[in-house]
Design brief:
29% helix; alpha/beta; 2,3-Dihydroxybiphenyl 1,2-Dioxygenase, domain 1; 4-stranded mixed β-sheet; lyase; lyase activity
Length: 154
C-alpha cells in the first residue's frame, strides 16, 4: 500500500509539473507586433486612421514629427511614418484588414466624408457578403494602401 501511495504521489507530481510547465509557456508562435506604412503626409494619414478608421493613437518614442502610432488589438500597432515621396499603386490582394463592430455605421462615416469604397470584385459602393456571413468592403487610404473593413466577430 505504501508503494502504491508513493507511486501515485510521484505520478501526480509529474503530471502537475508537466501541467505547470505547459501552462507557463507564453508563446507557441510569433505574434504580430506592428505594421509600418510609409506615407507622404503624416497629418493626412494620422487624421484618416484616427478619424475615419477609428484607431486609437498611442505614444510613440521618437518625438521627431515623422511618426504616428496606433493601437490595434491587445498587443499590435500600426506605425505611420512620413517621408514617402509619392503614393504608390498597390494590388488589392495586398491589404490590411480591420474588423468593425457595426458595418452600417462605418459605411455611413465613409459616405459622410465622401470616401469611396467597393466590394471585392470592384463594384463601387457595394458590400461583399462572404460565404461565412461576414460583410466586407475595400477602400484605399490617402497613400493608396488597400484596406479591408469587415464585421467579423471572431
Amino acid at each position: 500500500m505504501k508503494q502504491f501511495l508513493l507511486s501515485g504521489g510521484l505520478l501526480l507530481l509529474a503530471i502537475t509539473g508537466i501541467s505547470i510547465n505547459m501552462n507557463g509557456q507564453t508563446k507557441k508562435y510569433p505574434s504580430l507586433n506592428h505594421m509600418a506604412l510609409y506615407v507622404v503626409d503624416l497629418k493626412i494619414s494620422t487624421d484618416f486612421y484616427r478619424d475615419i478608421i477609428g484607431l486609437e493613437t498611442m505614444d510613440e518614442p521618437f518625438k521627431d514629427g515623422r511618426h504616428s502610432w496606433f493601437k490595434v488589438g491587445e498587443n499590435s500597432h500600426v506605425h505611420v511614418i512620413s517621408g514617402a515621396k509619392k503614393a504608390t499603386e498597390h494590388d488589392k490582394n495586398t491589404h490590411l484588414c480591420f474588423s468593425v463592430p457595426d458595418m452600417d455605421a462605418f459605411v455611413a462615416t465613409l459616405k459622410e466624408h465622401k470616401i469611396a469604397f467597393e466590394d471585392w470584385p470592384g463594384k463601387a459602393g457595394a458590400i461583399t457578403k462572404r460565404v461565412d456571413g461576414v460583410h466586407q468592403i475595400y477602400l484605399r487610404d490617402p497613400d493608396g494602401y488597400w484596406l479591408e473593413i469587415n464585421d467579423d466577430k471572431y
